[in-house]
Amino acid sequence: MTQPAQPRRRFLRNASAGAIGAGALAAPMISRAQTTTLRFQSTWPAKDIFHEYANDFAKKVNDMAGGRLKIEVLPSGSVVPAFQLLDAVNKGTLDGGHGVVAYHYGKQSALALWGSGPAFGMDPNMVLAWHNYGGGKALLEEIYKSINMDVVSYLYGPMPTQPLGWFKKPVAKVADMKGLKFRTVGLAVDVFTELGTAVNPLPGGEIVPALDRGLIDAAEFNNATSDRILGFPDVAKNCMLQSFHQSGEQFEILFNKAKYDALPAELRAIIDYAVQAGSADMSWKAIQRNSQDYIELKKAGIKFYKTPDAILKAQLDAWDKVIAKKGAENPLFKKVLDSQREFAQRAGQWQNDYMVDFKMAWNRYFGAKKA
């Protein structure tokens, strides 16, 4: 009764072995997708922490893509000057880039609203919240379309409040700003012009040489780490902290749209999530590095001063004049401004009511009395 089962088992074993053998023979015919390499350029010098942030983002994409996508990042000037990045990405001269939206200010003034000015009291993370969930992203796409820029833009990386800048002598009042040859970018150009300075919008890598040669008297850039690396302490000894000129800025990652659209959906998803991860990672790294370099700058003899409230108020007054003028002559500018205002009123009310004043706790443990 049991004999017929033996041939059946042998048949199944043979069939299984045959399937395995066939699979083994077929395996070499399955080809892995080739690596797609995208050539990026940042708008930052190779030694700047901002270029490091660009490489951090690229590494996240490269690691998650498992060899299917590779982003290579070149420093500023490798292919085009910093302020020509958008055009180069649009034309396909570069596949993508890393910079800030304010650098495209000359093409459409509304672009500078992503970063310049007090943003109706929003901090940089809230500006990113507005961009991603409050309508800002669609408005940015509309602006790029209006100036015929065929790019895909991601904003990420909330920057800490930027100093008023580096000065040969500290400024104590608004009158001290008048007549200074000063470096800034974006709508901050208009704000500082209202304050009486003669503005020169130099890219990051050109600021310190210009200060050294006396082409400008003072300049702002961004943070303790970048300022230290780029050599500001070698040409100026006074840094004024706190300002409204760029208190809510963030980074921009650009892709040539044709190159981006040609990527498989799963690789585009990896880019999406790498942007989000990069945003958090950048903000954590900034706290670590900026706080340490702040200490090192003090050790090197740099004098830090809080920007007087009178100058901060004058900045707000100047900002109101700038946005009234720009909004009246540029419908897209007003459209972005109105969107920010609506979001800031709601989100700012929530944040200001809910968030505790952390300075109270810090002063308790580290303030003057404890020292």
From TrEMBL:
A Gene Ontology biological process annotation? transmembrane transport
GO CC annotations on file: tripartite ATP-independent periplasmic transporter complex
Entry's Gene3D superfamilies? Bacterial extracellular solute-binding protein, family 7, Periplasmic binding protein-like II
* One Pfam family cited in the UniProt record for this chain: DctP
What InterPro entries does its record include? DctP_fam, SBP_TakP-like, TAT_signal, TRAP_DctP_sf
Residues the record lists as binding Na(+):
F221
Q: Which UniProt keywords apply?
A: Metal-binding, Signal
> Which branch of life, at top level?
Bacteria
Q: Which one of the record's GO molecular function terms can you name?
A: metal ion binding
For binding substrate, which residues are annotated in this chain's numbering? Q162, R183, E220, Q246
Q: Which NCBIfam families match?
A: TRAP_S1
Query: What name is this protein filed under?
Result: TRAP-type mannitol/chloroaromatic compound transport system substrate-binding protein
Task: Give the species.
Answer: Sphaerotilus mobilis
